[in-house]
Amino acid sequence: MIEYPNINPVALHITDAFQIRWYGIMYLVGFVACWLAARIRTKSLPGWESPERLNDLLFYTAMGVVLGGRIGYMLFYAMPDWLEDPLQLFKIWQGGMSFHGGLLGVIISTALFARHQQYPFWVIGDIIAPTVPLAIATGRLGNFINGELWGKVTDVPWAMVFPQAGFLPRHPFPLYAIALEGGLLFMLVWLYSSKQRHVGAVSGIFLLGYGVIRIFEEFFRQPDPQYGYFAFGWLTMGQILCLPMILFGLYLLLKPRQQPYEFCKV
């Protein structure tokens, strides 16, 4: 068993009302990493020579991630708490962000950006998709520091005792997510995007890859107590939400929308 590194989730305590938490810092690091990766992706794309358009895109997508992620969490995982205390929506520093809600938020914000810029939506999606795993990795690191999203009880040598989950050793699920949703998915989508693909294909491989990885990961994660398992004794909310992602990802991969679009080689 490996000892859980009990890190103070508060990085800087100024007053009880004003604290800077590692969870928020991790999101900021993720946004910066996405911007840098997207800059590499767009360095030879017509209309993206200046970083101004990319800066605007980052603003739109950041708003989509934060608003969509929080609203999605409250809708998918904490509706009773939200109904009891509507102000729970704004307590982001406590954790509680949904990837699937954030994804919907990014889709909406990207659609607004594409309309405003009069630029093809799926081309923008293919710019963003390879960078997203970087933000996922930093977000999962924030979960780990918060001591949340622990896994099922296990006796594997690398098990950890999460302070908020009792005294039994568990799978360190956030670390699995950092390695798989972050590292593995980043390499998969980044390498796939390094060659010429039809518009939408890069977005498709991201959706497909994330959906498959997340369904696999959920077998090691403690299910949300308010829901448990939905069907067959193993199907969780996270797995259910990944099924449409997989189907739509396959659609984008198998049904080209346009002729190939020349991205920069990375």
Secondary structure elements and pairings:
Elements lengths: L9 E6 L2 E4 H21 L9 H25 L2 H6 L14 H19 L3 H8 L3 H15 L26 H20 L4 E2 L2 H17 L19 H18 L5 E2 L5
Tell how many strands the DSSP assignment holds: 4
Largest sheet: 2 strands, antiparallel
Shape: globular
Portion in beta strands: 5-15%
Mean pLDDT: 87
Low-confidence sequence ranges:
none
Report the total helices.
Answer: 9
Output the structural class. Answer: mainly alpha
Percent of residues in helices comes to: 55-70%
Oligomer: single chain
Helix and strand pattern: EEHHHHHHHEHHE
Question: Distance between the terminal alpha carbons, to the nearest Å?
Answer: 40 Å
Summarize the structure in words.
This protein has nine helices and four strands. The radius of gyration is 19 Å and the shape is globular. The longest helix is centred in the first third of the chain and has 25 residues, at 52-76. It has a domain at 10-46 and 74-80 and 120-261. 56% of the residues lie in helices and 5% in strands. It has 266 residues and is mainly alpha-helical.
